Amino acid sequence: AQRVTQPEKLLSVFKGAPVELKCNYSYSGSPELFWYVQYSRQRLQLLLRHISRESIKGFTADLNKGETSFHLKKPFAQEEDSAMYYCALSGFSSGSARQLTFGSGTQLTVLP
Amino acid sequence: GAGVSQSPRYKVAKRGQDVALRCDPISGHVSLFWYQQALGQGPEFLTYFQNEAQLDKSGLPSDRFFAERPEGSVSTLKIQRTQQEDSAVYLCASSLKGLSGGTDTQYFGPGTRLTVL
Questions:
Q1: At a CB cut-off of 8 Å and minimum separation 6, what does B2 contact?
Q2: Is A102 in contact with B44 (Cβ distance < 8 A)?
């Protein structure tokens, strides 16, 4: 079974401070990991995926297979980063629909 | 271009009523997913379509839930004899490729918030 854990429901940081949103997963195989973000009154949207190895809006995330983690990091948080962040996993098992398995989300608030 | 749209955005139903939720995916997208998001939780998978074929319905919680995509575009999620535990946001997502295309970005609709009284 695949599972995604986001241990922090709420996270507050001050503007300009570093931020790290934690994500751990369990999956017996090679999963693909994603971070989705939902800004207030907007729909869920893809922030980044591990396979792209890119930085979006200053955010990066590295897949650590040894620790089964995919933490999201940004060195200097901005107020506009305040949103709900979901870590998600897609497995490659045979016959799978490749649906996403989501964590329960972390609400990030960046204080002025 | 137009994104995924869903209607209605809000639905209030009395316990025992049937409801139908509509999803218009991005034009040309082969894959369509339905998710259920309970309050304070992440979305949970319900069912998957590749074109008109429902290839995975393992996440549907009971036989009261039924989904279709008869022409491979618009999809409808129907819930019969609604119960209070069905109250949730129902999300639809579409992606360009089918299963053989590998994992693909899913684009989400705004969701339908269902409240069962």
A1: B26, B27
A2: yes
Contact A102 B40 (CB under 8 A): no
Residue B19 burial (CB count, 10 A): 18
Per-residue confidence (pLDDT) for residue A26, from 0 to 100? 92
Q: How many CB pairs under 8 A join A and B?
A: 56
pLDDT at B110: 97
The owner of tokens 């549907």 is B60
Out of A49, A99, A104, closest to residue B42 by CB:
A104
The total of other beta-carbon atoms located within 10 Å of residue A11's CB is 17
Contact B68/A at CB under 8 A: no
Predicted pLDDT of residue A51: 79
Identify the burial level of B64 via C-beta atoms within 10 angstroms of its C-beta, where 0-12 means exposed, 13-18 middle and 19 or more buried: middle
Measure in Å the smallest separation between the Cα of A111 and chain B Cα atoms. Answer: 22
Instruction: State the CB neighbour count (10 A cutoff) for residue B70.
Output: 9
B44 touches chain A (CB under 8 A): yes
Residues of chain A with confidence (pLDDT) below 70: 92-97
